[in-house]
Amino acid sequence: MEGRSENYTNLLQQLSETPLFRPIPTFTILNATLNHFKNPHKAYKTIHIAGTNGKGSTATKIASTLQNAGYTVGLFTSPHIHCFRERFQVNGQLASEEVVTQLLGEICQYEETTQEKMIWFEKIFVLACLVFRESEIDYGVIECGLGGLHDSTNVIQAEISVITTIGLDHCELLGSTEEEIAAQKAGIIKTASPVVLGCRLPRHVFENQAQKYGAQVYQIESRQDRSFLEENSDIVRLVFKILESNLGLKITQDALTEGLKKTPPCRMEEMSLDNYRGNLLKKTPLAVVLDVGHNSLGLQRLMDSLKKKYNYQKLTILFTMARNKDLKEALHTVLPQCSKMMMITSTHPRLNDFESLNRIACEVQEELNLRDVVVSDYQGDVQKSLEAALADCEDDELICATGSFFIMDACQKALGISQLP
C-alpha cells in the first residue's frame, strides 16, 4: 500500500493542496525552478508525445523499445491508476518512495524561499526531471499532461515530437474545434525537430507550425482495417525509422517487436478471475475487460476494438466519467452499443456522483429510445455491480468497465487483483 512513511504521506498531502491551474499561462516560474536545480531536463535526450488519446500507450511502447535496445529510459506519464509513483518510471520500475520523498522534499523546500509558486503539474514534472537525472537515463519519454503549447512539459527540446490523435476533449481549455485543439498540440513542435502524426489529424495545422521552426512533418498512412492499438504501433515504427535516419539510432527488429507488445495497464486489458471472491459463478463470460477510455473518441475506438476482438452476443458496460467530461456525449456513443449498462463510481473526488450518472443515462436512454438496453441500479457501488454482472452473465457475454482512469483501481480491487506496492 502506498504512503508507508509519514514524510512521504505528508508531502503528497501538501502536493494535493497545490492549485491545478493559473489564470494566465507562463513558463517563468517553472523555468526559474528548473534553473535552480541546474536544468535537470537537459541532462538526457527526450521524446515528446501529445494527443487526445493513445499518448500513454505510444509512450510506453517507445520507452520499452529503447530499453530493449540497451538504453536506460525514463517514462513520464499521467494520470496514475493505483500509485502516484507510476508517473515516474525508469526501465519499467517505479521511482522508489525514498527517492520521491527526498526529491519532492527538495522541491517543497525551494518553494518556501520563493514568492511565486508552481502549479501542481509543474511540480510533478520537475520531480520527474530530477528522478530521471539522478537515475542517469539516456532517454526520457515525456507525455504531455494537457494540450501541448502551454503544458509544463513544453520546456524540453525533444529529439522528435509525436501527436497521436485529435479529439474534442478539455474543450474549455484547449478550444471548441478540432483545429483549435490541433493548434494547441502543435505547440510542442521545436526547431529542426521532426514531428510524427497519427493518421486522422488536420495535417495543415501541423505543417504551418512546422514551417515556422524548420521541422519536418511525417504522418502514418491511413488504413481502414487498423485498430487503435495497431495505429499506435505504426506511429512507434515510424518514430524509430526517423530516429535511425536522423540520429543514427540503432534499434534491432527484436527490440522493436518486443517493445510493441508492451501496453500500460487497463488499455483493453483482460482481467483474470482467479482471485475473484464473489459468489460462485454459474457461467463464465467471454472476458472481463478494463479500459481507461474517457472521451467519445476513445470510447468509440474501444467499442470498435471490442467488436473486432470478441465474438460476443451481449455486452455489459460498467460506466463512469469524471466531472469535467462530456458525459451525455459519451453515453450517446456507448449506450446504443451495449445490452446492459451499470453506472459506477467511487470516492475519487474527480468522478461524477451516482445520481448524476444515473439521471443522464436515463435521459439518453429515453432520447435514443433504447428500451431494450437495461440500465441497472446498484447505487454506483463497484463491488456490487461487478458481482451482479458476473452472477447474471452468459458464456457469450462480454463485460467491460470503462469511462475513466479514476475507476480502474476500484474495479481491480473488486476482482481481487493485487495492487502495486
Which labels suit this protein?
8-stranded mixed beta sheet; 15% strand; globular; 421 residues; 6-stranded mixed beta sheet; alpha/beta
Describe this structure in words.
This protein is of the alpha/beta class. The chain is built from 15 helices and 14 strands. It has helices spanning 6-16, 28-36, 55-68, 97-111, 120-134, 171-174, 178-185, 203-213, 228-247, 253-260, 296-309, 327-334, 354-367, 382-391, 408-414, and strands at residues 45-50, 73-76, 88-90, 93-94, 139-143, 160-163, 195-197, 217-219, 269-270, 287-290, 314-319, 340-345, 374-381, 397-402. It has an 8-stranded mixed beta sheet, sandwiched between helices. The chain has a 6-stranded mixed beta sheet with strand order 9-10-14-11-12-13, sandwiched between helices. A hairpin with a 2-residue loop joins strand 3 (88-90) and strand 4. Helix 3 crosses helix 9 (228-247) and helix 11 (296-309) packs parallel to helix 12. The chain is globular, with a radius of gyration of 22 Å. The relative contact order is 0.12.
